[in-house]
Amino acid sequence: MRTAIVLGMMTLAVLTAASSGRADQPADQPAVKWDVAAARHLLSRTSFASPPEEAARLAAMPLARAVDELLQRASQAQPPARPEWVREVWVNTNRRWSDMSAEEYLIVLRRTGVRTNYEINDLRAWWVEQMVRTEAPLREQMTLFWHGHFTSATSKVLSLPQAFYQQNATWRKHALGNFREFIEAVTLDPCMLIYLDMEESDKSHPNENYARELLELFTLGVGNYTEKDILALARVLTGWTLDAPPGSVYAPRTTDPTRARSVLRDGLIPKFLPERHDDSEVTFLGRTGKFTLQQVLDIIVEHPACGRHLASRLIDYFGASDPDGALRERMAKAFRDSKYQIMPMLRELFTAPEFYAESARGGQIKSPVRLLVGAIRDLRLQGKITPAVAQLTVPMGQELFNPPNVKGWPGGKSWISASTLALRMRLGEVLVEGQELTGTEPLGRLRLTVLSRDPAQAAATTKRLLQIDAERREQQQQGGLGVRFVPERFADVKLAASPEKLVDELLQRMIVTRIRTTTRDAIVAACREVPEAQRIPLAARLILAAPEYQME
Predict the structure, then answer these.
(1) Please, are residues 46 and 350 in contact by the beta-carbon 8 Å criterion?
(2) What pLDDT sits at residue 30?
(3) pLDDT over 60 at 29, yes or no
(4) Is 50 left (phi over 0), alpha (psi -120 to 50) or beta?
(5) Of all helices (H) and strands (E), which one includes residue 243?
(6) Which of 338, 226, 233, 340 lies closest to 295, judged by CA?
(7) Suppose 39 and one of 6, 55, 100, 274 were both cysteines; which one would form an S-S bond, judging by CB atoms 3.0 to 4.6 Å apart?
(8) What is the DSSP track for 210-229?
(9) Within 13 Å and on the Cβ side, how many CA atoms surround 65?
(10) What is the maximum alpha-carbon separation in the chain?
(11) In this predicted structure, what is the pLDDT of residue 8?
């Protein structure tokens, strides 16, 4: 316990200071020193974990060839098998028909809520499973990057796990491809159409939300467009909605047209309605005409600011040191020269001196998802990822498919607070000892007393809703953590005879940053105080709590 407290105090001090101003330090620009340490730095940033054996293999080849291998593996990987609950044709089970009573519809909502709660939790576990088990981790890392760049959130896009699966598959498909094709897929993505209110935008009331974020956050950045450009873009983007697949047969029931869109929606297929589209002439980013969606997207990617904005976001995410913007300009040029391809930008980034500069190493706080996935890979845990494992990132501040706002997660020091640090410190305890963090949720604001004037009807409805809530809790508890720590799989048990040799071996394998003597000595001392059989699990827990492990 004393060792854990000491490591915790060290972690807070190191994490609070380590990322301060590192990006502003002058970056030395010599040729890259490509060795095992540099290869481990590359793997840590691109692949969630940095096995020494893989680093040695990459370091034995030229840098450009090593980077190309990572990029090719990521771009050529086959998409993962989809979750079993994903449907070929989505059906809106939240539909409220005009002939439904309030009691009947409450039951419909609750049943749908139980199912969708299960599906979105399963989707998070499914994605973490891909990140942990994939042989092309850079592709999942890029999918995670785009997930925080082109944001949508379950807090607004309700009851649509199917749409979030489709979005995740789309982001993965385009993760290293052509950005012009990507932003068209983003614009017509069902989650995005709903999240940024383009689904109901028409010529009488053009909604500016998506147009604004497309320019400000997704492509150009502040200062490279005007308010008039936003309005012009919003007008061009009117007329899109979501509908059932062509040829669908509709139920012979009526729906009150004043109901919310979530209970009226028939499908998740983007559909253009010419009668709702504003086809008037507009001036957008200095060009005038009657533009189509495709034409305005062409104008956006051709703008010089587009490549620079994307380069800045990638540099920030992967933690290169670029104080004078030289790397950004080279990446933007690679973007333009390749006709808006993403992979050449990454090749420029991962072969750049700025990426391997001393000021770029060891100064980035791992995001909760990167911390969790890296820990599972480093610990070599057995078993399938369950929702209980995937949900560990939530109290640490990063809930997959539910970023805090359209800007995504701010990252950096925002990952660290009194509450999030406490859980980061406990992550090794949870994963190594299998101690699941449990909790229950209340039934919610049902206001059952006003459901019916008939007490018997109200009692029956209450009973059914409580049963549904019990089903939801049972779903959450099924499977537990699922993963299991096996000491023999993690380390050579013979090393446990010597605390010094054990700790040195594990530190060298799991940590890519400079290891402080105080960290090493504290873990060695703790291992000396326990029986030999307990040393491997204890060392694993304490290393995950060390400040060096929290950084990359």
Answers:
(1) yes
(2) 67
(3) no
(4) beta
(5) strand 240-243
(6) 233
(7) 55
(8) HHHHIIIIIIS-TTSS-HHH
(9) 6
(10) 81
(11) 57
pTM, full prediction: 0.89
> What is the C-alpha to C-alpha distance for residues 43 and 381, in angstroms, rounded to an integer?
19
- HEC assignment per residue over 446-482: CCHHHCCCCHHHHHHHHHHHHHHHHHHHHHHHCCCCC
DSSP code, position 282:
E
CA distances from 293 to 79, 285, 296, 300, 497 (A): 28, 14, 5, 11, 67
Q: Which residues contact 265 (CB under 8 A, 6 or more apart)?
A: 92, 242
- The more confidently predicted of residues 112 and 35 is 35
CA distance 334 to 340: 8
Distance CA 391, CA 164 (A): 17
* Average pLDDT in the chain: 89
Give the residue, 435 or 36, on which the prediction is more confident.
36
Write the pLDDT tens digit of every residue in 355-365: 999 999 999 99
Q: What is the pLDDT of residue 259?
A: 78
Distance CA 227, CA 233 (A): 10
| Whole-angstrom distance, CA of residue 472 vs CA of residue 382 | 27
Distance (Å, whole) CA 121 – CA 391: 8
Q: Which residues contact 430 (CB under 8 A, 6 or more apart)?
A: 392, 436, 437, 481
Rounded CA separation 550/413 (Å): 12
Residue-wise pLDDT tens digits, 388-419: 999 999 989 999 999 999 999 999 999 998 88
Q: Which residues contact 425 (CB under 8 A, 6 or more apart)?
A: 4, 7, 8, 11, 545
Report the sign of the C-alpha dihedral through residues 154, 145, 382, 512, in that order.
Answer: negative
The two structure tokens encoding residue 455: 């007490």
Give the closest residue to 469 by CA, choosing from 114, 204, 227. 114
* φ, ψ of residue 240 in degrees (nearest 5): -95, 140
Mean pLDDT calculated for residue range 135-153: 97
How crowded is residue 106: how many other Cβ atoms within 10 Å of its Cβ? 18
- What is the spatial distance between Cα 355 and Cα 364, in angstroms, rounded to a whole number? 12
Q: Please report, rounded to a whole number, the percentage of residues in the chain having pLDDT higher than 90.
A: 73
Torsion of CA 163, 165, 167, 168, to 10 degrees: 160
> What gap in Å lies between CA 264 and CA 96, rounded to an integer?
7
Residue with tokens 């030289």, as numbered in its chain: 326
Least confident of 18-32, 336-350, 478-492: 18-32
The three state secondary structure string of 421-434 is HHHHHHHHHHHHHC
Q: Residue for token digits 């599906």?
A: 119
Give per-residue pLDDT as tens, 455-514. 665 666 566 556 655 655 554 455 578 899 999 999 999 999 999 999 999 999 999 999
